[in-house]
């Protein structure tokens, strides 16, 4: 049964850190992007296939990010993704990154829009996807 939430683990590599040895702030957004991609994949949606068959892409239109505590090299982090709101052409997801003790590292509420792959204009989320998302809530 699909789930409106998912968890994905990521390890911090040296390349993810800045001169102070902590994760560079933009890399938390990369970790969240990967977690959303894996969530879609777990639901049966490969983004390249969605582009080819449905002609759609998903893009971030808004990100409200809070940096709570620093993560460091070699830490294993858990990125959780929860679908909070599904609209006709967009969805809102809450994502949280925690360390292995459960301490919050970063949290974000992201709005993701569905757009036409050719024109990058708003496009309705394919019905086959909204049915899966609805059944998972």
Quick recap:
The chain has 137 residues and is an alpha+beta fold.
Oligomer: single chain
Question: How would you sum up the major sheet?
Answer: 5 strands, antiparallel
Order of helices and strands: EHHEEEEH
Beta-strand content bin: 35-45%
Q: Report the principal-axis shape.
A: elongated
Report how far apart the termini are. 11 Å
Spatial order of strands in the largest sheet: 1-3-4-5-2
What is the number of beta strands? 5
Structural class: alpha+beta
Give start-end ranges of low-pLDDT stretches. none
Tally of alpha and pi helices: 3
Radius of gyration, in angstroms, nearest whole number: 16 Å
What proportion of the residues is helical, as a percent range? 25-40%
> What is the residue-averaged pLDDT?
94
Protein described:
The protein is α+β, with helices and mostly antiparallel strands. Helix content is 26%, strand content 38%. It contains 3 helices and 5 strands, in the order βααββββα. The protein has helices spanning 25-42, 47-54, 127-136, and strands at residues 5-11, 56-67, 76-86, 90-98, 104-116. It has a 5-stranded antiparallel β-sheet with strand order 1-3-4-5-2. Strand 4 and strand 5 (104-116) form a beta hairpin. The protein is elongated and about 45 Å long. The relative contact order is 0.24.
């Amino acid at each position: 049964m699909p789930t409106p939430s998912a968890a994905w683990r990521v390890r911090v590599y040296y390349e993810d850190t800045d001169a102070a040895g902590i994760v560079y702030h933009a890399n938390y957004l990369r970790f969240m992007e990967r977690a959303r991609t894996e969530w879609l994949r777990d639901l049966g949606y490969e983004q390249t296939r969605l582009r080819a068959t449905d002609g759609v892409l998903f893009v971030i239109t808004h990100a409200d990010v809070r940096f709570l505590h620093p993560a460091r090299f070699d830490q294993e982090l858990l990125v959780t993704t929860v679908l909070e709101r599904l609209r006709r052409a967009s969805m809102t997801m809450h994502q949280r990154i925690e360390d292995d003790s459960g301490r919050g590292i970063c949290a974000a509420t992201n709005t993701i829009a569905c757009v036409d792959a050719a024109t990058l204009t708003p496009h309705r989320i394919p019905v086959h996807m909204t049915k899966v998302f609805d059944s998972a809530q």
